[in-house]
Design goal:
4-stranded mixed sheet, alpha+beta, 4-stranded antiparallel sheet, Jelly Rolls
């Protein structure tokens, strides 16, 4: 009887650990399949025919339409550069240099992936409607109240997620050697 109890406990512990680790890897990935630079994370093989099982499960669970790395990449950030969760109660400054892609957009969503309703009707900026400042940067204010310049309204009482989508970025080899991954926008908290 004692052996049966130990066997059942071992089986239960194995099941919990196996399912728990699979859940974490499907949600968050690991460095080989979902590289992270600062607050930005991407699933590099999401649209590939040779994607690993964790990437395929992540795509199936999220419901995203994946593209391969040569056609486009999506980077997701839910924290600022200091690792603090993005919140609509705070004000942030997103600073980018022109990205090495034919076209890109940066959009704001709540933690459930829904657009945030706002009176301005603004949810994103793209490479065509952001001004390059004299210092070579492009800046976006992320705040609940209107700000001068490029402003994304964050609404109230939301955890936030930024999604940066790039169409036709540098080749995967150039990306891994520092191209796209080194030039991703910074997200700095201004006030809270």
């Amino acid at each position: 009887m004692k052996n049966l109890v130990f066997f059942l406990l071992f089986a239960l512990l194995s099941l919990v650990m196996g399912l728990g680790s699979a859940y974490i890897l499907i949600e968050d990935g690991f460095a080989l399949v979902s590289p992270q630079t600062g607050p930005w994370k991407t699933w590099i093989n999401a649209g590939s025919l040779t994607a690993d099982p964790y990437t395929r499960a992540h795509v199936a669970r999220s419901g995203d339409l994946p593209t391969n790395a040569a056609s486009g990449l999506a980077f997701i950030a839910s924290t600022d550069d200091d690792g603090r969760d993005l919140s609509s109660a705070c004000e942030y400054e997103i600073v980018a240099r022109p990205l090495s892609a034919i076209w890109w957009t940066i959009g704001l969503y709540d933690s459930q992936g829904q657009l945030i309703p706002n009176k301005a009707g603004r949810h994103a900026f793209n490479s065509q409607n952001l001004t390059v400042l004299p210092d070579g940067t492009q800046r976006i204010s992320l705040a609940p109240q209107a700000r001068p310049g490029h402003w994304l309204p964050s609404g109230e009482d939301h955890d936030l997620t930024l999604v940066l989508r790039m169409i036709r970025p540098l080749s995967v080899e150039q990306q891994r050697e520092g191209g796209v991954f080194q030039s991703l926008p910074t997200i700095q908290r201004v006030s809270c």
